[in-house]
Every structure is written in C-alpha cells, then in structure tokens.
Amino acid sequence: MLPKGGIPLTLYDLVAPGLDLRGEPRYRIAEIRAADPLGADAMLAALPAMNAAADVPALTVALRALVPDPDRVAALSVVDALAAMRDLGILLGSLKRHGTEPVPAVPEVLPVLEELGRRTDMVPRDTVHHYTTWNPLGARQRMYTGDRMEASLQDAVRMVFPSLVAALGTCAELARLEPYDPGFALCLDRTAQHVQAMVDSIDFTVANVSPVFFAQEMRSYFEEIDVAGHEYLGPAAAQVPLWLVDLTLWQCDRSNPKYDAFLRESVQYSLPSWRDHYARHQGGTSAVSKLSAAISWEAVDRLPQQLAASAVSLARVLRILKTFRARHMTIARKAYSEDVRLYDMGSGGAPIELLRSVLDLTRDNETLVRRSVERPNTP
C-alpha cells in the first residue's frame, strides 16, 4: 500500500506512536524529527548543492556557523541533543567525503561533539539512527545528495526501527524461558514477525536503490572521522543491530571469533538500552543451545508437542534471518564488485567476507534446528 508521495506504509507508521509512550527519549521520534535546535533547516537544504560542487570552503563555513556554544549544549534536552548531533553529523560526513577531516578543520566542534555524546549517552558523532529514524521527512529531510535513491535508502532503514525495538523485547523474554515453556514458541513467532520487516526492507532497497549508486555515490559519505584520536564510523546501515536478535537466538554461544569481534566494535553505535541488552545476554545460553539440549534428552521417536512447536518456531525465525542475509549478500557483492567498488571494506567497517561467514553461521544453526526434529512421527 502506497500513501501519497510513494513511500510504503511500514510497521513504523503503525507502531511509532506506541514507542513514544515508553518513556525513552530516543523513541520520541516525532519530537526529534521536529526539533531544529541549531536553526539548521535553511543551511542543510543547500547541502546537496555544496556536495555536488565539492565545495569544502562552504561546508567548513556551514559547520562552523552551526557549532553552538558549549554552555548552550549543556542545557539541551536529550531530544534536542540528538537533533543537534544529527545536523552537525551530516556536515562531518560531507567534509570527510571530500577529503577533509572535519574536527581539525573546525576545532571548536570537538567539545560540542563530546558533550553531545555525553548528553545522549552515545558515540560523539552521528549514527545510522540520526541519519534515518531521527531525520525529518519531506522538505526538511537532511540528505547528502538529494537523490531519490538516497531517500529510499533512508526509508529502508526507517522501516525496521520499530521492528527491532519490538524484537528486542521478545528476545529478552525468550532468554528467560525454556523450550518446554508454552511461551518459548510464542516469543519466537512474534520475533519472526518483527524480523520479517528486515526482509521487506532489503526487498525495498533492491527495488529502489542501485548497487552502483550506493557504491559510487553514497559509500563515500559513511567514512570514519577522527574525534579526539578515536575513529568513529559514519552512519552506515551496518549499524542497524540485527545482531541483537542473533545474540539470544544463537550468537551468544555458537558464534566465531570474527563475528564476535565485529559485534564488540559495533555495539558502541547502538542506543544505551540496546547496549544494556547486549551486556546482559552476551554470556548467556542461546535458544538453539537450549533446544538442542532439551531434544538430546528425548529418547522417544515423537517429541513432546511443546518441544516440537518450539523447534518449528525457532527454525522459522532462523530461516527468515537466513533469507535476509542471503539477499543482503547479493546486494553487497554487486556494490563491492571489482568493476564498481571504490572501497574494499563495507561501510560498517568489515570485509564482505564477514557477511558470508554470518550467513553460513545462520544457515548452520537453522539446519541444526530443522534436522533435530526430523525424526519418525514428529509433527
């Protein structure tokens, strides 16, 4: 279903009002989008033209003009601080794209970035959430290029934010349950519904964003910048933390060292409550391991009905994750093929080979669960 403007109705349109009621300022999406604490609307409307001209002097002047007094930053609410980081951040990425490290070019921005990071309890630069979910729509939308495909790329990420919030809730509940509990399969079924939004998002991206456009136009805007001697990645889609779902389903005890290292680096770009979720569950027992242990104790041909239902539900959600990763892998191969790519590494800071590794891990766990119930007379 397409409303006026051609942007598909997503789960965000249905769920976002409920997010606002959770008491988490980072979920007050409409308020963050509406906020313009730096008075940046008019200046950022001209950003695509500055980038098209590679006008580094104009970009530098624009960033310097938007940098607020540190005392003013200290008085901002979390909502306004998130909006301020959003608007400074898109200028940071633009300068870096044209070969200029933004903090040395505008040194007065450093204490502001550090204070905004403290105020929001996030990294001291913009993330994928600033660039997509917290970005205004319509005439006020902040964009590097102004291209329709860039807008579609932003929409594709916006589509999944409420689904991820909901999936974290069901995964946290799942971690407290055992496969014999009736709620185990129910949690997995709800998680599957939420994760399906990722597949819808990747399909939307395939239909609306050319791999060549991403590789040769957008990728350059997501380079890391140096903030006080630490490099922070740009607002890459790889920061959308599907790995938080992996965590309780299989990753916490069935991963490999390369994926573990990637997650340890990626978690810093998440929201504070999402980082807490990671800290609570990284040393736990995964749903796959719980199910495998329970089934190993069953010597009979027919599994207990509840255990069989849990296995079917877990295989279903792993299959959806596998589908997403296979389609993502196809896009990445096109965007980073030798005749197209400008960079060897993905925008999330990892090589394309890691996508293959995570796809293989997901497939292996899905196969293990599926085969565990392939016994005579099992429903």
From TrEMBL:
Molecular functions per Gene Ontology: heme binding; metal ion binding
Gene3D superfamilies: 1.20.58.1320, 1.20.58.480
One record GO biological process: L-tryptophan catabolic process to kynurenine
Pfam families: PrnB
Domain of life: Bacteria
Protein known as: Monodechloroaminopyrrolnitrin synthase PrnB
Organism: Streptomyces lunaelactis
